[in-house]
Amino acid sequence: MSKYKYLLFDIDDTLINFEKSFHNCAAKVLELGGCEVTGRNVRRFKELNDIVWFSSGLEDIYEPYIKENYHRLYHKYVEDSLDKAINEFGLKGNYDDLMTCFNHSLGEEAHVNENAVKVLNILKDKYTLAVATNGLTIIQPYKLTKLPKVFDKIFISEEMNCMKPYPEYFKYITGYFNCQPEECLMIGDSLVNDIGGAGNSGIDSCYYNPGYLKKKAEIQPQYEIHDFVELLDIV
After folding, report:
1. Which of 14, 69, 88, 192 has its Cα between 20 and 30 A from that of 204?
2. Does 1 reside within a domain?
3. Which InterPro entries does this one have (predicted)?
């Protein structure tokens, strides 16, 4: 019998494929803005988004300034990403409509990772399932719309006013469930946010690594899977 009672799932690049989801979202925004939807335009939209993301500093989550201003900067990243696309493609129409489409389509057009639905449906009656994600309340919930409604709680960093990988994030979760860290398993793709963050809080982790990426020596999960069905062999 598994020692775990609570399974915590990351969203982006764990439950859903972010790049494919973003491509679907970009197509919706381009269409709404009156721009031709081509593979080239969709890829360029993603390139612009990546430029804004890396210039935002949000990857440097251990920087004190980033920690203090994380969600304000996250909102700015979303706005700047759309602004770049509007300028690049000459998108027309109401700005608020474009922004709503951008935010909601990231979820409504989500590309669910293979076998995630199957595995969640098997686990739902055996464990307490929760989502543990960094991000904004205007975006993250929509990313779950194509997944089965099996989650007992959705933990979104903006609502919690703290984020992974910091211990206060994981303490918030164990406090909410009134459980011990040893009863939880964090499943995610980020070595820093999911695996390292959980480990520093006394929570075991399962590294979702479909691309067989090389791990950092200083961050070691208890488990590693390359396909969601492999999670069933662990829990």
Report:
1. 69
2. no
3. HAD-like_sf (IPR036412), HAD-SF_hydro_IA (IPR006439), HAD_2 (IPR041492), HAD_sf (IPR023214), PGP-like_dom2 (IPR023198), Pyrimidine_5'-ntase_YjjG (IPR052550)
